[in-house]
Records
---
Amino acid sequence: MEKLAIEGGYPVRNSKIYYGKQTIEADDVQAVVNTIVSDYITCGPKVDELENELCKYTNAKYAVAVSNGTAALHCACIAAGIGPGDEVITTPITFAASANCVLYCGGKVVFADINEKTYNIDPKSIEDKITDKTKAIIAVDFTGQAVEIEEIKQICKKHNLIFIEDSAHSISTKYKGQQIGSLADMTTFSFHPVKTITGGEGGAILTNNEKLYKKLVLAHTHGITHDSLLMSIENPEPWYYEQIFLGYNYRITDFQAALITNQLSKILRFSNRRKEIVKKYNEEFSKINELIIPYNIKESDTCNHLYVLRLNLNKLKCNRKEFFEAMCAENIQPQIHYIPVYWFPYYQSLGFKRGECPIAEKVYESILSLPLYPKMTDKDVDDVIHAVKKVINYYRIVR
């Protein structure tokens, strides 16, 4: 039997392959260079262009580009009017920003459990968590798979709640044939380097609601406006502006916007490559009893940001940590997405305790994310598959 690298054998590959990596090409570099040497490097035409292109791509009426995905979530909560005494329901299997944005506004986070198949927030658990203080739901398209949008929209309509879709993972996903971005009251995107398209950092909020849009614009620019219709005086001087509420500096630069816009023009190619890799993984790993491949609802035409593999630990002579370390020894660097948010010391200090979402905690204990990004070669993909099989064979319980 082939030895693991950590046991003194040779690793599957000599160089490390990480779970995610940006794809930056010559035309991306040129788009940034052209903008840096132009007259505007912030608050300029490239930001407007990005917002327009996002609207075209998603069929949303309005888009506001911001500095990062966390800023997008914060602005969405501001526009939703979240404040002290308000409760917002979200999932614990997400990056902390999905919950932190509620706390920034003085609201209270309520965690609903996940569906054990999809790993997305469970609409039934959402219903169980609703109180007379609930004001919004932040549902996360975990790994890129769309949440059960129609079910969540019905819940929001029934209880008069605002639906914020955290689509940091799912910009190229479709739900029932419609592009993610215009289906919730507000949809947020992230353009972090490991996402489907990137600006280094960057984010956006999309909406079809003009009132929410105007609040989003103010929220990301200090609460300052040049719109005379919103000012306290009539016929203001041409240079005049007013701060009409306390906003933030969440503006994005023009050269980031130029990079994201250029990447957006290639999103179909990036998405198709991700789908090819996911298909290959699924074909190979579905044959292995010790593994559980991702489950996808029929409504979601998913572009995976993450490929999350679940270990059937009852059939392996190892725990998740040992499996993780063995993969690293093979020079395949996985990652864990995500530690339940309320396990963190800060959230524990707020009164949250382990056990609040038992399905989420059960799933967390056995998942890890494998490398997935467009620049992966076929050999890279084969090396990942080889490494997984090698580790499985080593830790397999012979029955």
---
Amino acid sequence: MITLFRPWLDSIPAQPAPKPDAPTQTPPGPVPVQSAVSRPMPPLVTVAAKAEAEKNIRAMSIVNQIDTVLQGRLMGGPLEKAGIRLQESPEGGVEVIVGLDKFPTVDDVTDLAIKKEIRAAIAEWEQKYVPGA
């Protein structure tokens, strides 16, 4: 996190400490606001951060990896607030949580849109993280 904030912190000019015997100055007037279009913000996620996230996902279990892909797919979409997540079952399989409902397998999910989104996340995971897939 520090490496992400460092460039921003370094761009803030340091304010000199006032001298104890110096007369007080009136603060400067308001600074004109620049258009947000004229100077876009740099992306917060750098290439190094993406590489770190990639390394972290490979350290997770397969179910957690697929759930991470699923959460990324759900973000900003119509199913984002549905409370969909995947977790490992005690038997080593996958359980699907949808809000307060728990389904023992993906096939048991009753909502077809949710089932389709989970299957799409699995396919995306296979493309990204399964060698030779």
---
Amino acid sequence: MIIGVPKEVKTDEFRVGITPSNVALLLDEGHEVFVETTAGLGSGFSDDEYTNVGAKIAKTAKELYENAILIVKVKEPQPSEYGFLNEKHTLFCYLHLAPTKELTAVLMQKRVCAIAYETVALGRELPLLKPMSEIAGSMAPIVGAYHLSRYRGGEGVLICGSYGVSPAKVLVVGAGNAGFNAAKIASGMGADVTVINRTLPKLEELKKELPHVETVLYSEYAFFEALKTADMVVGAVLVHGGAATPKFISREILKEMKRGCVLVDITIDQGGISEASRPTTHTNPTFIEEGVLHYCVANMPGAYPKTSTVALSNATISYVKKLADDGVVNAIKNDASLALGVNVFNGALTNRAVAEVHNFEFSAIESLL
């Protein structure tokens, strides 16, 4: 199969879809790989490193899409990329279609086979979301602590406090991979950390690993009380099946929170937990609504591409190999986890949660194969 790795064009995105070492694995299986020129530079990989393992360098995105059948990238296609897509393409990347009706419609109109990393599932685990959730979760207290400074618009609280001065109160909403890592890093930074979650098993697991972190079972009352005293809130709700994130924090609740509280909304890719949340970039990461500083960068791990590219490529390569070795249709038929990843197929929307949020017709993938 001919595989294409384009250069990411989303603002402030420096990751790349496949590392040179994983390109070598595909070439060993007899596949052909095109990499767009300079696609890997932001992650520390030169064109020479790709050509040294046998990849071909495409001078333009147009050339890459014209040659490749399987497109492996990181983030969802941007409007400047829509024109390159057609029905011969299988797109394998993060899609996050619930908040992006236009992209959903484009993929359907172009009859692209679109497989989303975030909906590939093994039971309750999301193996292609997990590595980036861990990195975003680890980042959240770091960027949150930075923006707590008065200079950045926060309330001026040092996360670890000082002698005779209490540390910052950090509320983590969700106890999945992102939430666990946010709690671990925040606790290590000396914060007073509380994790709130809707179910007990995840809280029990977290408590065993992080005994100094307070755990609270979600209720509206408990959540509201914790929000009122928090200096930093990390939105780390795990959303399965590509659904939109519930808006746990309304504008009325925002008004009750501390002025200068920092909300790091990791879930912004799926819409965010605040009614006021909207996607931002690493260049312009924050805005203030109702006195609360919102950090809503939609590609947080892109800030650390040397780490996150390797972690992501190592997680996706087995699925890329399966799609290439077996052919897309056979791979989907034979792997239930990949079938769950298919969001659009032959012009039909095959993700029920996305269909419901956009009021589009849903078609089961099994009926289309």
